[in-house]
Amino acid sequence: MKVLFYYRGIESIGVEYLMSYLKMKGHNVELIFDPGLDDNHFLKLKFMKKFNQYESLLEKAKSFDPDIIAVSIPTNLYPFVNRIIPLLKKELPVPIIAGGPHVSSLPEYVLENENIDMICIGEGEEAFAELLDKMEKKLNIYDTKNMWFKKEGRIIKNGTRNLIADLDQLPFPDKSLFYEYGCFYDNLEMVTGRGCPFKCTFCNIHFQRSLAKDKGSFIRRRSIPNIIQELNEHLNRYDIKYISFHDDNFTTSIDWIEEFAELYKKEINLPFYCFAYPTTVNKEIVSQLKNANCMQIFMGMDSGDPDIRKNLLKRPMSDERIEMSAKIIKDSGIKLQLSTIFGFPEETPESMWKTLHLAEKVNPDIASGYIFYPFPKTELYEYSIKKGYLGNEEIERIKRGEGGYHHGSILKHPYKKLAVTLSKLIPVYNKTPSMFRPLIKWLMARECTKLALVIYIISIPIAFPFLGIDGIKVTLRMAWKAYRMKVKTARRGN
Ligand code: SF4
């Protein structure tokens, strides 16, 4: 079977896993990738619209002549998916299947979309392969677990299948098609496991866990030799200089880290980046990471108000614990990236300033600021509805995937302007010498959101020296590839 994937903006490891799994099962896959340079979730840059290339993508889709089209939908990608699928449906009369977080949290809503014929809830590899196998053999597809279908005006819902127990059995994610579009350059992204043991109320992990109830172990980790083998395969193919481990939490097990550090140092030894939950950070783990050549750790502080952390976010930890974890990381020589979120329901200006002040005390190498976005079906989404922060209009906007955690707050929040200003200025505040910080604070207190955005954009190379510069390089590369593709399509048309 020929499967055409659509994705936008950045590389998707989830789609790469699906593509390699389907290839292993004998199917043919292709990708149409929209670089989305005019709105990449971080910034909206209208002048970059000229790099949009729907025509070239449609040409490519038609010449591939797929049997099925697959779209993976993180919530804020839904508006863009909705732009391209009517065009694809018009040109190619084949079924369209959707999967991803937005689909798993709002299955009925997504299936109401006239252009979507079926959806996959939860892990997709085995379910999608089974579906294709049945389609190929012209068998009944409507009993495929994890899949819901539209048929003759009704919805057929199937239960969920067991989680994939042994992740080592999966083929390594196929990065080749994303690479052709310039989606990565010298920074290789990968994951070493699935699942997370924590229960942050703004995260859809909690919802994913409930979907997978009684379906096997939710938290799974690959073996270290399997990870090293994958790394070696990519390193033989691409000119990689850094590795980014995108696991929700890299630091949960000291035994695993010890084994990883030893083999990684021996076989790979490239600088790497990973994520850590503050209470999982200790001297032993950090010293192992340092030995293995870890250059930067991303640690979520989220709020600087202990009450908000404990009672609203379900991240019960003291300010002192956060400061201690940060000190351990910085003392080791690993760079610390601290993340903050502003604009939670119930947040007052006082609690938002507490976040700035705790970040200042922690003194990370890099501070990132996000704006709270209530992803559907998360605990904080339901709470925001109950407490009147989301009315019908906002709920509909979230269902349509509008907004995001880099744009303005979608909540009916009395202090949303302050939240946006703080989130945009905290990275530059963190890099500003202390004698000039009162000036940035003055700007923050004035809630000048537009000026804050301009300062944020200008400061990206300084505020985010590693990922910011990598992001700029990748954006330029994607723009160049998109331009070349557009020129080729235009030449063919003449
Ligand atoms: S630690 Fe990260 S992945 Fe885990 S629940 Fe919290 S936000 Fe989600």
List the helices and strands and how they pair.
Blueprint lengths: L1 E7 L4 H12 L3 E7 L19 H11 L3 E5 L5 H14 L4 E4 L1 H5 L1 H5 L6 E3 L4 H12 L10 E5 L2 E4 L18 H5 L6 E4 L2 E2 L10 H7 L8 E2 L2 H14 L4 E4 L8 H14 L4 E5 L6 H9 L2 E9 L3 H7 L6 H14 L2 E8 L6 H14 L3 E6 L7 H8 L5 H8 L16 H16 L5 H10 L2 H15 L3 H27 L1
Parallel strand pairs: 1-2, 1-3, 3-4, 4-5, 8-11, 11-12, 12-13, 13-14, 14-15
Antiparallel strand pairs: 5-6, 6-7, 9-10
Helix pairs in contact: 1-6, 2-3, 9-10, 10-11, 14-17, 17-18, 17-19
The structure holds iron/sulfur cluster.
Keywords: Iron, Iron-sulfur, Membrane, Metal-binding, S-adenosyl-L-methionine, Transmembrane, Transmembrane helix
Cofactor: [4Fe-4S] cluster
Protein name: Fe-S oxidoreductase
Question: What tags apply to this protein structure?
Answer:
binds iron/sulfur cluster; six-stranded parallel sheet; 20 helices; membrane; Rossmann fold; S-adenosyl-L-methionine; 494 residues; alpha/beta; single chain; iron; TIM Barrel; 15% strand
